[in-house]
Backbone:
């Protein structure tokens, strides 16, 4: 029997980060890449923080509006009850 062929695939030692081949970079290029990646990460964190703050402000305003709406609804209902009682009292006086 003839020897079997080695059917294993060759695995490359290349390392890719965000589509960039890092394994073929020199030390200076690698340092520049790391610094630019860190700056990009910092910008993304700032943007996310700003978006979270905007979301929090929006939800605070929403809660304030809801509480004001609830207060106005209760005030409206009490005035409506008072008007109904006054109308009933007026009907009784007319009889």
Residues:
């Amino acid at each position: 029997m003839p020897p079997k062929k080695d059917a294993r695939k060759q695995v490359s030692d290349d390392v890719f980060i965000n589509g960039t081949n890092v394994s073929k970079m020199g030390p200076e290029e690698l340092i520049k890449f790391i610094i630019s990646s860190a700056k990009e990460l910092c910008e993304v964190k700032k943007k996310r923080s700003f978006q979270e703050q905007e979301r929090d402000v929006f939800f605070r305003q929403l809660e304030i509006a809801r509480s004001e709406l609830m207060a106005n609804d209760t005030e409206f209902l009490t005035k409506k009850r008072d008007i109904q009682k006054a109308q009933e009292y007026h009907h009784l006086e007319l009889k």
